[in-house]
Design a protein that fits this description.
Structural class: alpha+beta
Radius of gyration: 19 Å
CATH topology: Arc Repressor Mutant, subunit A
Order of helices and strands: HHEHHEEH
Strand content: 15-25%
CATH architecture: Orthogonal Bundle
Number of helices: 5
Number of strands: 3
Shape: globular
Length: 122
């Protein structure tokens, strides 16, 4: 018997979280990874993050630019595009609806709506 695959659960979730972090302020990869880890995504590493950043950039949701670093070479920063801001708003709506639905199910079946048949688990 195999264990629960967390990667499938967070597959699309990380993109929205990355966009939210970048929406607060333009940021660079290592700082984004730190913010994700500080928020509870302990197993996020650069091998996970950078392909996601590249995918978001290819989808024109973020744009990259270089900024001088006080402690070494320039860093690649990311900022949201207008399309990224719109995508983030859509993600937030979808996430809140999904999270509410999951919470309802985990807390107990919500009451059936008029016209719906409720499964009584035979």
């Amino acid at each position: 018997m195999s264990g629960f695959d967390r990667s499938q659960l967070r597959k699309g979730t990380l993109e929205g979280c990355i966009l939210q972090i970048i929406a607060r302020a333009p940021n660079y990869g290592y700082a984004i990874a730190d913010a994700l880890r500080a928020s509870g995504f302990q197993d996020v590493n650069e091998g996970t993050l950078y392909p996601l950043l590249l995918r978001l950039e290819r989808k024109n949701l973020i744009r990259a630019f270089y900024r001088a670093s006080p402690s070494g070479p320039s860093r690649k920063y990311y900022d949201l595009t207008e399309a990224g801001r719109q995508y983030l708003q859509e993600f937030l709506i979808a996430w809140r609806q999904t999270a509410a639905g999951v919470e309802n199910v985990l807390a107990g079946q919500p009451p059936a709506r008029e016209g719906e048949v409720q499964d009584v688990g035979q």
